[in-house]
Amino acid sequence: MRLAGKRALVTGAASGIGAATAERFAAEGAAVVIADLNGAGADEHAAAIRAQGGTAVGLTADVGDDASVAAMTERAWETLGGVDILVNNAAIPTIGTVETLAADEWDRVIDLDLSSIYRASRAIWPRFVEAGGGTILNTASVAGVIGMAGQHGYSAAKAGVVMLTKCIALDGAAHGIRANCVCPGFVETPMVNEYFDAQDDPAASRAAVNAAHPLGRMGQPDEIAAAFLYLASDEARWVTGTALVIDGGLTAGLPPG
Ligand SMILES: NC(=O)c1ccc[n+]([C@@H]2O[C@H](COP(=O)([O-])OP(=O)(O)OC[C@H]3O[C@@H](n4cnc5c(N)ncnc54)[C@H](O)[C@@H]3O)[C@@H](O)[C@H]2O)c1
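A: This is the predicted complex of the input protein with nicotinamide-adenine-dinucleotide.
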């Protein structure tokens, strides 16, 4: 068990990558709080993990709201008797360019996808410092490493996540706090399915996205959970400030030919 005795708080964990990460953490011995805006979904996923023999509790939380994040942090700390690993995973997709993205949509994606990580990290920071350390893991995206046409707000937010992670790592090191992020390529989740549904030809869009990954397909949530598991574990004790790209080769460079 790679996370035996660890306690983890995972946001956006009722669905997709967060759900798979919470499930994998629990399977590796961690006690997990599953926080999500979708409280019913969080409870349901926690119950499913418990049914598999894991330790998990669902919690309703809005990472876009200071008071909700403060309450989430306190509840998780009380419920688990402390937190060793915070996974800032909740986010929303947003399509739009500087031409088409309304100012309030821009503000919303920056708030939910980037400021939420500042918010949750700030809430847990004094507790980690007092405890002598902790691990902050953030879900960034390949969109934070290469530009995504048509996704100006989302890409800018995710690039911010990469850099915020590095800064947290630098200042956290003296306190035993490690910070890393994962940059997934396209992963088959409800979020990405919504993206395809919004395209003129969803089937063609899906095929093009699969083909854009040199390994020939999108990723699965458990393939991202495996990266989070490594970064959360003691095997990654000398890893901080990194942006681990898990993308089937999407950002490796130009294909042959
Ligand atoms: N799926 C992909 O292709 C992909 C690729 C790169 C990065 N990501 C990132 O992975 C993370 C998870 O995405 P996913 O694909 O699993 O999406 P998803 O839609 O399956 O899950 C996102 C979860 O976040 C929750 N959520 C949304 N807003 C919230 C809020 N304000 N407070 C709390 N919870 C909230 C949703 O209820 C949902 O359960 C996101 O950060 C996303 O940007 C996804």
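The mean pLDDT is 97. The pocket of nicotinamide-adenine-dinucleotide is lined by residues 11-12, 14-18, 36-38, 41, 61-64, 89-92, 112, 139, 141, 184, 186-187, 189-192 (CB under 6 Å).
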